[in-house]
Task: structure prediction
Amino acid sequence: MHILKEVAAELFSMFWADARMTTTLLVLVAIVAALLNYTMINPVGAGALLLVGCLATVIEATVRQARRSKQASTTL
Result:
């Protein structure tokens, strides 16, 4: 039971650490799901949109973190 609490705490902290990225990905998934339900978008196109959106979000988060690290190292 103790290990389950540790895993849950680690997952929660992982998503909470970058709430901006988590929120962006949830919004992206909701938009793609809405497009699939309410438009005549091809499922392959929706998958491609999801892939591109996820990659863009991860790249943006990585660049943002690199800038933070660079600023922190130059102020020391």
